[in-house]
Amino acid sequence: MTTTPETPSRPRVAVVTGGSRGIGRQVVTRLAADGHAVVIGYAGNRGLAEAAVEEVTAAGGQALAVQADIADETAAAALFDAAESAYGGVDVVVHAAGRMALSTVAELDLAELDAMHRTNIRGTFVVAQQAARRVRPGGAVVTFSTSVLGLSFPGYAGYAASKGAVEAVTLILARELRGRDVTVNAVAPGPTATDLFLDGKDEETVARLAAQPPLERLGTPADIAEVVAFLASPAGHWVNGQVVRANGGIV
């Protein structure tokens, strides 16, 4: 009796926006370690994006970097086109790109508010639209919110408002994809030691925020990447239409 050699299964393909730094960069590394071919969307720093690609490929994985303004529908479509052209499709979308400007309601520059909402709200909607059209059955979409929505820290009103919109889009999209076998969830980190979070904060403020969780430390990008990896994996496929507050227990 003759047997036919098995065809190697294709790798799952992940598109990660904001993948050149911070939590997004750690997500790239983590998903690549799980065997995903990763397409790294980045806004402007090509050097950081290429360094992420080199890290993945040096470890035996597959990755490419694509510059894209994720709030521009043509650029976002081109990002997904690149993933399909290079690797044959898209199975996972992690939308980690974001912008944060902190100020009281009374003092926030409305130009900063507009820029933040263009990236965080319109950008999320544009990426979600592409994901809804392209993610293959068995796939996953993960967006990013913030635990500040429940904590109501002063100075975060504009940012939290934009992330409230992210949660709304995420939970509605999960229901709109009924029958597609695609999950849609949001991860809402608490204080996490990234450049975006630490920028402009003095040591006293950082220490106070680090002391708030019962675990008594800031989160790390690796902590958040583990949650994302679970949601993106077959093991996490029964979690759908949820906001996971990954914040060390802050309430």
Commentary on this structure:
With 251 residues, the protein is an alpha/beta fold. It has a single domain, classed as NAD(P)-binding Rossmann-like Domain (Rossmann fold). It is 45% helix and 16% strand. It has 9 helices and 7 strands, in the order βαβαβαβαβααβαααβ. The protein has helices at residues 22-33, 46-58, 73-87, 110-134, 148-151, 157-176, 195-198, 203-210, 221-232; strands at residues 13-17, 37-42, 63-67, 90-95, 135-144, 183-187, 243-244. Strands 3-2-1-4-5-6-7 form a 7-stranded parallel β-sheet, sandwiched between helices. Helix 1 (22-33) packs across helix 9 (221-232), helix 3 runs parallel beside helix 4 and helix 4 packs parallel to helix 6. The relative contact order is 0.14. Mean pLDDT is 93; it is low at 1-8.
